[in-house]
Fold these 3 entries.
Entry 1:
Amino acid sequence: MELWERLEEVHARWDVLAHPFYRRWSAGELTTGELASYAGQYRHAVLALARASEDAAHAAAGEDALELAAHAEEEAAHVGLWDGFVRAVGGDVDAAPTPETRACAHAWARPERGLPATLVALYAIESAQPAIAETKRAGLRAHYGIDDAATTAYFDVHVRRDREHAASGRRLLEARLDGADPGALVAEAEAVLRANWRLLDGVERVTNAT
């Protein structure tokens, strides 16, 4: 089985759209407090994605470095879009991370990995984002009265741009597969996707305790 098929299996195993939190999001069952808590926690993941993108740019060279630097600049700008959502749902942009969130941010932005591992982490995250962003946006509009462009901007952008980012990431990774360890790359992808699932576990744990 080739690498891309193995990555699809990992994605299916840790598809966060099957997580109870996102299922309740789509069903309109989240409270305003749960949305606010989630928004503040996931901000740490947004920051980590921007850091991972920047690390990839620094590790590359030539035209690849320029392409990845543009990607990193875009992800850094998306933090502001996410903050618009956080404030709109009453969240805290300075919310302290739960242990699960802290682990997710570390897995996404793990600084000690090499470029192929960072690229596969970015690919795993971004190839899943269009469907996730579309599902979250649809739920916000259908159930929570949130449909203004300023509040849904982060989701609007990621429905479209992460298809392009994932395609770019796949191309950059394919150019570096000679001599790479497919098992290690699959394990890296699984680590970031599992960490996202557990971030949601942490949100549920905290909100259920209040």
Entry 2:
Amino acid sequence: MVLPGYDRFGANEYPDTTLPISKPTLIRVKKNDYNFIDASFEWKDIFNNLPSDTLSIFYFDADSVINLTWNRIQIKYVILKRDDLSLIDLESENWTQTFN
């Protein structure tokens, strides 16, 4: 499961890399699959409105999200990985992120 660190997704924005107190809407991505995160806004505009030129992407294990309370996930920072990416990073990777 994935959470872009942007307030429209219910997340805190970089440089605040804490998890939000309330459970946000997470995006499910199955193993060996992909999910196209589309929105009614341009991602370049998102970067213009961020506190810094960085977007955090949080990766969660689906079993943890299902079996643990969000409070525990938030307090214990139960994430698999976090990527902090600039606009240049995303453009150089053709807007594609891979979780290994």
Entry 3:
Amino acid sequence: MEKPIKTIIVDDVKPVRLELKAMLKEYPVIDVIGDAGNAEQAFHLVSKYHPDLIILDIKLPGLSGFDILDRLKGDFKIIFISTFEEYKEKAMTYQPVDFILKPINKDKLRKAIARLRNLP
């Protein structure tokens, strides 16, 4: 049996976090251990739980998703989610598992999870 992938969702829009949590229930290997609406909450969750995966929005109030990553320490994978395609080039410099444009659909999420599970 696969080891659960401890996952944190960071997005400032609560309905997006709730929808994503619901979609991730299809993947028993993904264990959503918390969600955050801003950088401060994200830092707290990461330091407390040491996730394997962070699903991260880029445009957040205050610090951006990029700012958060620049300040975090840890060995975790990233899946970026964003409404803005123009962030993709910079996002790729962080070597994410995937960059998913919102609205997130099940097919894009399935492909990202498959890619994640095939990584070493």
